[in-house]
Amino acid sequence: MTLKHLRIFVEICRQKSVTGAARELYMSQPAVSLALRELEEYYGQQLFERISRKLFITEAGETAYQYASSILELMGEMEQTLRRDTFQKKIRIGASMTMGVYYMPNTIAKAMKQFPDLRIQTQVNSTELLEAALLENELDFCFVEGPVHSEHLAVEMLREEELCIVCHREHPLLQKEHLLLKDLAEENFLLREKNSGTRAVIDSVFLLHNFSVTPLWESTSTVALLQAAAKGIGITIIPQQFLKMEHMEEQVGVLKLSDAYFRRRFHVIHHKKKVLSKEAKEIMRLLEEELKQE
Fold it and tell me: What is the per-residue pLDDT across 190-232, written as a single tens digit (0 to 9) for each?
């Protein structure tokens, strides 16, 4: 059953005649009759009674006519709407926390100037939730840090950088030479929540070094972790950009390990079957340009 079948059926109803419908649709009468027969066979319902060479619509036919008319009317509205010059295009972008807080504002501001008629919707969330949104076609593409798991997503690396271990500025470990990961075993850790990209990187390093940690604090807010570390509550592992944003370089200390480092990668990801518009590709280019300026 196709839209063509529905158009033919609706025209038969309006003309109350196969011949009249064929004339209005510039089709042959056998072709119109065939379409009606196919429609009746498809639904297993008799849509017209044929009495003395006249057509009388059945109850099933009345129901079908109401639905078919509505469908064709909605199709007409959709075509008119999509063909308007004023139709507003929309792009749905996801960004993980660091990308959303530190890099996306400048990128989106530039894109809005470049594409004033484009509506850019941005969602800042954990990498895990952004992956799920891409798989459900709720987002067009995302900028994330940390590992990506789904085999259905295309992944392109944009940049690699190290996270820094932040503590109170008078922490005794700042005086220790050749600091090792095991020297942090007795410390209180302040970490991002489990499903974040940053936490995934940290946990993978811990696992590699057989290092077990139960965080004292877990938070979706990197700023909250930074403030807690500055107050001496514990140590945290965060992107260096947040030190700059919060003007905290002089208020905290940064620990350097000799045997381990926490390195993460920024990626742009989208569904492998997603066709990206030229605007989407340009926003990706703007973000990559923003990353290179750091």
Answer: 999 887 888 888 988 999 989 888 899 999 888 899 999 999 9
Give the pLDDT confidence of 143-166 residue by residue, as tens digits: 998 788 889 999 999 888 889 999
Amino acid at 113: K
Count of C-beta atoms within a 10 Å radius of residue 219:
16
CA dist 275 and 71 (Å) reads: 27
Q: Residue 17: name the closest of 26, 31, 29, 7 by CA.
A: 29
Task: Report d(CA 111, CA 91) in Å as an integer.
Answer: 11
Token pair 């639905």 is at which residue?
67
Rounded to an integer, what distance in angstroms lies between the CA atom of residue 139 and that of residue 191? 27
**129 to 8, 95, 100, 252, 270: CA distances (angstroms):** 46, 10, 14, 31, 13
- pTM for the model stands at 0.60
Rounded CA separation 267/257 (Å):
26
Residue that the structure tokens 């807690």 belong to: 228
Q: What is the Cα Rg of the chain in Å?
A: 31
Give the separation between CA 186 and CA 202, rounded to whole angstroms. Answer: 17
CA 50/CA 66 separation, integer angstroms: 20
Contacts of 1 (CB under 8 A, 6+ apart): 38, 39, 42, 43
Confidence of residue 72 (pLDDT cuts 50, 70, 90): confident
CB 127 within 8 A of CB 145: yes
Question: For residue 158, what is the enclosing H or E element?
Answer: strand 153-168
CB neighbours (10 Å) of residue 249? 11
Angle (deg, nearest 10), helices 59-83 and 29-43: 110
Q: Which of 232, 230, 231 is nearest to 242 (CA)?
A: 230
Q: Are 230 and 168 in contact (CB under 8 A)?
A: yes
